[in-house]
Amino acid sequence: MIHLRKTEEISENQNKDNSQIQQNETEEEPKTKKRPYHFGEKLRQVREHKGYTLKVVAQQAGVSESLVSQIERNHVSPAIDTLLALADVLDINLEYLFEEYKRNRPVEIIRKTERPSVHEDRITFEGLAKQSGTDPSIEAYIMKIPAGSQTHRGSYGHLGREIGFVTKGKALLTYGNQEYILEEGDSVSFSAGAAHIVQNIGDVDLEAIWVVTPAQRFVNH
Questions:
Q1: Nearest-angstrom CA–CA distance, 192 and 155
Q2: Burial of residue 189 (number of CB atoms within 10 Å: 0-12, 13-18, 19+)
Q3: Which residues pair with 181 in a beta bridge?
Q4: Among candidates 141, 138, 205, 144, which has minimal Cα distance to 169?
Q5: How far is CA 13 from CA 9, 25, 128, in A?
Q6: CA distance 95 to 87
Q7: pLDDT higher than threshold 80 for residue 211
Q8: Closest by alpha carbon to 77, among 33, 40, 30, 32?
Q9: For the sheet containing 170-175, what is the strand order?
Q10: Rounded distance, CA 198 to CA 208, Å?
Q11: Nearest alpha-carbon partner for 90 in 127, 126, 133, 53
Q12: Is 31 helix (H, G, I), strand (E, B) or coil?
């Protein structure tokens, strides 16, 4: 009887342990559960922009009107053949539908106190946009040049284009063998293939917003 009671106690303890493990797994499951990717709103916007009714889209795609409505409201995830049919009817590029897939936050904000910056001699470059490894298309920063100083990057030229907007001070842009005066409120754009230098020829600090495409990874984030 004593041996039997000990066996029953061991069995009860094992059941408690197993229940606790199952409970922990159940509690942890929501943490690892992936959030579904929705694009129904994009389908609806394109459909309405083209002036198509749910019935027209459904008939041309070979599905029910209610299914199209549920997909647009993100109530169901369509099968791949259904999605392809809808994209064909609406003439949508699949890249447009999935351009935000796996992006944690489509809109990224950099607070003024959190801007990354680098220094080139006395010049400061403050980053305005985070650089994404999958989207190296653009780089933007605030360029601050003290009086009498000039940039060195770009002095040999590089691939792409640049756009600048002077917000304060007076600049001299040397582009190849040409020189251009830029004052507050002026903007400039040019092919970055030629050597180019920006010099502060004023009496106060020069500040300008500068955009480079493709990104040169000058300001690291």
A1: 10
A2: exposed
A3: 172
A4: 205
A5: 6, 18, 59
A6: 11
A7: yes
A8: 40
A9: 178-183, 170-175, 196-200
A10: 10
A11: 53
A12: helix
pTM: 0.54
Q: In what order do the strands lie in the sheet with 117-120?
A: 117-120, 123-127, 139-145, 206-213, 161-168, 187-191
Non-local (6+) Cβ contacts of 131 within 8 A are 139, 215, 217, 219, 220, 221
Alpha carbons within 13 A on the beta-carbon side of 174: 14
- Residue 164's H or E segment, with its range, is strand 161-168
Q: Which amino acid is at 176?
A: G
Q: Which residues contact 67 (CB under 8 A, 6 or more apart)?
A: 58, 76, 78, 82
Question: Model confidence over 136-165: pLDDT tens digits?
Answer: 678 899 999 999 999 987 678 888 899 999
The answer to whether 166 touches 185, Cβ cutoff 8 Å, is: yes
Given a contact cutoff of 8 angstroms between Cβ atoms, the answer to whether 127 and 221 are in contact is yes
What the block records as the tokens of 98 is 């999935």
Write the single-letter amino acid at 23.
Q
Compute the average pLDDT of residues 127-144.
Answer: 77
Q: How many whole angstroms separate alpha carbon 20 and alpha carbon 69?
A: 43
CA quadruple 94, 95, 101, 105: dihedral sign: negative
SS3 assignment, position 66: helix
Alpha-carbon torsion angle 165, 171, 172, 174, nearest 10: -40
Q: Is 143 within 8 Å of 123 (Cβ atoms)?
A: yes
